[in-house]
Amino acid sequence: MSPWVLDLFTAGGRNLLRHKLRSALTLLGVFFGVAAVITMLGIGEGAQRSVLQEISGLGLNNILIDSVQPDASQLPDSQRNTTGRRRGMRILEYGVTDTDVEQLRSACPEAEIRVAHRVKASAYAYGERLDADVLGVPPDYFTLFDSKLIEGRWLHPFDSLHFRSVALIPESLTASIRHPRDGGHPHVKIGTYAFEVVGIQRTMAPRGNRTIYIPFETAEQVFGTSSVKREAGSMEFTRTQIGQVVLHCEDEQELKRTAAVVKRTMERNHPIVDYALTVPVEILEARQRTQRILNLVLLVIAGISLLVGGIGIMNIMLAVVTERIPEIGIRRAIGATERDILFQFLAETITLSTLGGVLGCLAGMILVPLTEIWTGWNGVITPSSVIVSLAVSWVVGVFFGLAPAVRASKLDPVDALRHG
Amino acid sequence: MIRLEQVTKQYDMGGGLTVLHALNLDIGDNDYLGILGPSGSGKSTLLHILGLLDRPSAGRYLLHGRDTGALDDSERSRLRGRMIGFIFQSFHLLSSLSVQENVELPLHYQRVGKAEREQRAREALQSVSLSHRLHHRPNQLSGGERQRTAIARALVTRPDLILADEPTGNLDQKTGQEILEVFDELHQAGKAIVLITHDPAVARRIPRIYHIVDGHLHEAPP
Ligand SMILES: Nc1ncnc2c1ncn2[C@@H]1O[C@H](COP(=O)(O)OP(=O)(O)O)[C@@H](O)[C@H]1O
Ligand SMILES: [Mg+2]
Q: Ligand 1 pocket, B44 CB below 6 A?
C-alpha cells in the first residue's frame, strides 16, 4: 500500500474514532450482516459435510438392494398373510430372488456383486437380547464399504468353506459381549446356535454399527431361507431368498448405467415393491440440491441484512458529508481535488464496513460453535467463507460509500467555503 | 504573473445578478495589492476566481500566460495547491487536527512524504513564530495564533501568490497589526499578495489599492 493510501485510511480511522458511538452504531448493520453470513455459510458447509460423510460411508460407488417385507395392504389376497384363526396358512415370500441376482449378473458384467443373507433370528449374549441384525456375508463384503477392523480378524473364505460358526461384531456391541473370564473367545448366541466372536469391526455399511456379520454359507446352512415368527398366538411364515445385494462399480458412468439397469430389472420382476433400492450417489445429489437451495435462502437472508447494514452506513455518511461541508471547502481551497475528497470519504466508509466485517467474522466464529452446541448441527468455518465475508463487507463499503463520497466530491468549493 | 481579461461573474438567480463586470487586472510577481469595497461588493468572489476555486462566467484568466479556463478540476486543484495560498477571515482550520497537522495538510494533497511534511510544517510554523504550539488544537489558540497557523498553512507549499480574505477581520487592532506585519515580511520575501479588506486603516499599509464599485475595479491613486 502506498503511503498516501495508508494516510487516507489512518485519517479515516481517526475521524471514526472521534465519534466512537456513532461509528459503532453505524457498523452494527454490517457487523450483524457478516456475522449472519459467516454463521450461515458455516452451518451450511457443516451440513454439507455431514451429509457427504454419512452418505459416502454407504459407498458412493455402490448400489444397495434390500429385501423388505411389503405392507400387508399391498399384497394380493392369495398372498395376504393368514393368522392362526383363519386356518389356511401360507408362507409369505418376498424380497430379492436368486433369479434377480442372476439377471443382474448377466446384465451388469462390469459390476462387482455381493449377496448377503439376512438372518431373522435374534442375537443374545449371556442371556440378554442384543439390539442387532444378523447378516450372512461373503468374506469380501467389507471391501465395498469404508470399514475398519478394531480387533481380531475379518471373516475368511475358510469360514465359509467350513460353515464355521464365527461372527464379526460391531464396535458398539463390544461392551455387552466381552466377558473374558476363561481367556477364551467370547460368544454370541444367534437363534439357538453359539457363534464365536472372531473380530470387532467398524464399518459404514448400512446399519453397520448394529449388525453382526457371519459367513454367508453358514447363515444359509444353519438358518435357511424361511423363518417363522411366533407372536402371541399368531404365527408368521416368511421366506426371503436373498437379504441384500450390493453392486459396486468403480466408474461413475458405469454406476449410473448399472443403477438404471437395476431399477428396470427390479421393477419388472417385482410388481409388488418388496425391496428397497438405495443409490447413495443419487441420495447425495438430491441432498446436495436441497442443501444448495437452503444455502441460497440463507445467503439471501444474510444478503438482506448486509443490504440493510449498507443502507445504514450510507445514511450516516450522507449526514456526515453534510456536517463536514465546511471542512470539504477548506480541503478544496488548499489543493484537494474532487478525487481526493471522494477517496477520503470512501476510505472512511470502507474502514467502517471492513471493521464491521472483521468484528462480524469474529462474532461468527464464536456463534458457529455455539450453534453447534445448541442445535447439534455441525458448523465449519472455512477460510473461503471468511474471505467471502470480508470481501462482501468491503464491497458494501465501496458500494454504499460511493453515493456520499460522490456527493462530497461534487460540492462546489466556493459554496462549501461559504457554508456556515 | 496573473492577467484577468474582461472577467465577468454573474449568478443567474431570477433576472441575473452581475457581481463582477468585465474586470481587467494584472498582478506582477511581487505585487502587493489591496482590494477595498463594501460588504457584498464581490471582493470574495474575485478572490475565489483568482484562487481557481471559482470560474468566471465570461472573460479570460491567464496564470503565467496560461489560460485557466481550459483546465479541468484536478489541474486547477493542483495549481491551486502549488501556487496559491489562501488565508480567510475566520481562519478555516480543521478543529480535529493539531496545529502541525493543519499545516501539513496541503502537502498531503501534493503527495509529499511524511518526514518532509513534518519538516516543512515546522519550518512554516517557525516563520510565523508558532514553534511552541505544534501539538495544540486550533481551539486552544488565540485568534492571532490561529491566523498565524493559517498563514503557515498557506506558506508551507511555497506558493507564488497569497490570497487573503479580510485576514484581520476577526482580530483586535493590535493582533491585526501583527498579522499585517507578517504580510509585509512575505511581500519583502518576494511573494505576490492580494489582500481584501473593507477597513481603510488596513488599506493604508498596502502599496497598491483597488476599489470595487458596482462590479467595476478602480485603481486608487497612490
Ligand atoms: N452562490 C451565489 N448565488 C447568488 N449570489 C451569490 C452567490 N455567492 C455570492 N453571491 C452574491 O454575490 C455578491 C458578492 O458576494 P461576495 O463576493 O461574498 O461579496 P464580499 O466578499 O465583497 O462581501 C453578494 O451580493 C452575494 O449575495
Ligand atoms: Mg467576503
A: yes
The answer to whether the beta carbons of residues A201 and A155 sit under 8 Å apart is no
Cβ–Cβ contacts within 10 Å for residue A293, how many?
A: 10
Q: Confirm or reject: Cβ of B43 under 6 Å from ligand 1.
A: yes
* Number of separate domains in chain B: 1
**pLDDT level of residue A292 (50, 70, 90 thresholds):** confident
Out of B92, B111, B153, closest to residue A4 by CB: B111
HSE-up (13 A, CA, CB side) for residue B79: 19
Q: Residue B7 belongs to a domain with what CATH number? A: 3.40.50.300
Q: What is the pLDDT of residue A384?
A: 86
Residues of B with Cβ-Cβ distance to A339 under 8 angstroms: 74
Closest Cα to atom 10, ligand 1: which residue?
Answer: B11
Cβ(B11) to ligand 1 under 6 A? yes
Q: Is residue A77 over pLDDT 50?
A: yes
Set of chain B residues whose Cβ sits within 8 Å of the Cβ of A4: 108, 111
The SS3 of residue A66 is: strand
Confidence at residue A335, expressed as pLDDT on a 0 to 100 scale: 95
CA distance B141 to A301: 53
Domain boundaries, chain A: 3-54+286-419, 69-273
What is the extent of the structural domain holding B23? 2-219
Mean pLDDT of A317-324: 94
Whether the CB-CB separation of A238 and A69 falls below 8 Å is answered with: yes
| pLDDT over 90 percentage in chain A | 37
Range with lowest mean pLDDT among A63-67, A145-149, B51-55, B74-78: A145-149
- Helix (H), strand (E) at residue A301: helix A280-323
Average pLDDT of span B2-27? 90
Question: CB A277: neighbour CB atoms within 10 A?
Answer: 17
Select the residue of A15, A334, A414 nearest B109 (Cβ to Cβ): A334
Answer whether residue B195 shows pLDDT above 50.
yes
**Distance between Cα B219 and ligand 1 center (Å):** 22
The predicted pLDDT at position A89 comes to 58
Assess contact for B88 and B44: CB atoms under 8 A: no
The dihedral through the CA atoms of A410, A415, A418, B1 has a sign that is positive
Q: Does residue B37 have its Cβ closer than 6 Å to ligand 1?
A: yes
